[in-house]
Specification:
The complex is a heterodimer of chains A (about 400) and B (about 70). With about 400 residues, chain A is α/β, with parallel strands linked by helices. Chain A contains eight helices and 26 strands. Chain B has one domain (about 10-70). The chains are: A alpha/beta (about 400), B alpha+beta (about 70).
Chain lengths: ~400, ~70
């Protein structure tokens, strides 16, 4: 059995793998390498820090003492520059080499920059790490006007931060509603109205053609493709992630919009595993390859990867993820893969309550709940069980829906 | 996480201040039973059986911040 484990990345995927390895292999040598300057923190809560709602301390999850106490060799500020899978070794920028029997890559992604003029100017922020959150908080506290770009789950965090810090913001969106791939205009309007109440104005069919800067190189306006100019002293850009696959470019590891792994989190190299945002995994629930960036999914993948590093095929990853937005006075939750599918049903179920369920071949593959999250467990159960709901989809829109409301159908 | 059989009951108290030494959990970090409990108790003067995911004194971020109290 392998007894020397190297984990690259100390986010929730890497850290949960380290925890599992230590619990289940007390004598294993475990090394965790991270290019960040701090150990595991709560990535879900850093937006709360940037909003000014939460102090720094509760965001830390693992103090450095945790690694000492669990006999895990943590190397902060350590940049991996080469992965030599033929010789089972990792090389760092600092000139160190770490040999392994089994390797876990939990290397995540990096926020994409807009491909426009002055996209890297002072005052333009991307949001991924705790350090980003600190810079954003400091910058937004001095701002009066902001522009936000990226009409998705990460962009709305910028809207909430501006709203919480009383910064007047324009939220520039390419389509005619927020997260148009998962929400219709009717559902999205509930989110738009919540933004407006906080001083954030959605601007539709817009985007950024270029940023303008002052003499000091600080952003002072965004200009959209129609030529409309929006003054700002803060800009938040959240248009997606580039997955950090450049590390494995010169290796035999299979890459396809991330590192390809099977349901055991193993790559095409027997002793190399991956977990978290970086993976393109065999999704047993969906029945095809998928990606998922939620906290719960990454944590579970780290745990499952560790178990399979100890004994391959000991546990498969089978998970229905969810992601909530808790910035407003009503809850929002997406589950599964709400942007996929070949059909969907949606309804306003009460004032301020809306839901949409995405279907593929008659089965639930994901959805969005706004206001009323009570069907969350039932919809996830349908996904896990692979229930065919053909001909009964309107029942999914009933307030108080329960799986028992469906007529018996074949499960797969 | 399963419900604890302690006989104690849990309630959520809305709060606007989080102390630096607090343990704060986001809704997305909780297990399914604890999520149901948070949805049912948040903003309501109700109690429910204690759940293994939440301890007395914990803070939960849902649509507001709530402090967990058990008795």
């Amino acid at each position: 059995m392998s007894n020397s484990y190297v984990i690259v990345g100390d986010g929730i995927a890497g850290a949960s793998a380290a925890e599992t390895l230590r619990e289940e292999a007390p004598d294993a040598e475990i090394t965790v390498l991270t290019d960040e300057g701090e150990s595991l923190y709560n990535r879900i809560l850093i937006k709360e820090y940037a909003k000014g709602k939460l102090p720094e301390a509760p965001i830390s999850i693992h103090q450095e003492e945790w690694y000492d106490d669990h006999d895990v060799d943590l190397r902060l500020n350590t940049v991996v520059v080469d992965i030599d899978v033929e010789n089972d070794a990792i090389h760092t920028h600092e000139g160190e080499t770490f040999e392994y029997d089994s390797l876990l890559l939990a290397i995540g992604g990096t926020p994409q920059q807009l491909p426009v003029e002055n996209a890297d100017a002072d005052g333009i922020h991307h949001f991924w790490t705790f350090q980003d959150a600190r810079r954003i908080k400091e910058s937004v506290e001095d701002a009066e006007k902001a522009v936000i770009v990226g009409a998705g789950l990460l962009g709305i965090d910028f809207a909430a931060i501006c709203g919480a810090q009383d910064v007047e913001a324009k939220y520039l969106m390419r389509g005619d509603n927020w997260w148009r791939y998962a929400l219709s205009e009717e559902g999205a309007e509930l989110m738009h109205e919540a933004m407006r109440k906080r001083g954030v104005e959605p601007v539709f069919d817009s985007g950024v053609d270029r940023f303008e800067v002052d003499d000091d190189g600080h952003v002072e306006a965004a200009v959209d493709p129609s030529g409309d100019r929006y003054e700002c002293d803060f800009a938040g850009v959240a248009i997606g992630l580039n997955f950090n696959t450049e590390l494995v470019e010169n290796t035999p590891l299979e890459v396809e919009d991330g590192l390809v792994v099977d349901e055991y989190m193993r790559t095409n190299v027997d002793n190399v595993f991956a977990a978290g945002d970086i993976t393109t995994f065999n999704d047993l629930v969906l029945g095809e390859q998928a990606k998922n960036g939620s906290w719960g999914s990454a944590k579970e993948q780290g745990t499952v990867a560790a178990r399979n590093m100890l004994e391959y095929e000991s546990e498969a990853f089978e998970w229905v993820s969810s992601y909530s937005i808790t910035h407003f006075d009503f809850p929002f939750l997406s589950f599964g893969h709400p942007t996929l599918g070949d059909d969907s049903v949606e309804a306003t179920t009460a004032e301020g309550e809306w839901r949409r369920v995405a279907l593929k071949n008659g089965k639930v593959v994901g959805g969005v709940l706004i206001g009323d999250l009570s069907p969350q467990s039932a919809f996830k159960q349908l996904m896990r069980e692979g229930r065919d709901v053909s001909g009964q989809t309107e029942l999914l829109m009933e307030p108080g829906f329960s799986v028992d409301d469906l007529a018996a159908t074949t499960q797969q | 996480m399963s419900l604890r059989e302690t006989g104690r009951r849990l309630r959520l108290r809305r709060t606007g201040w989080i102390p630096p030494d607090a343990r704060v959990r986001h809704y997305d970090e909780l297990g399914e039973e604890a999520q149901i409990l948070v949805r049912e108790l948040a903003g309501r003067p109700r109690t429910a059986p204690e759940t293994g995911d939440l301890d007395d004194g914990d803070f939960v971020k849902f649509t507001d911040y709530y402090q967990v109290r058990t008795r």
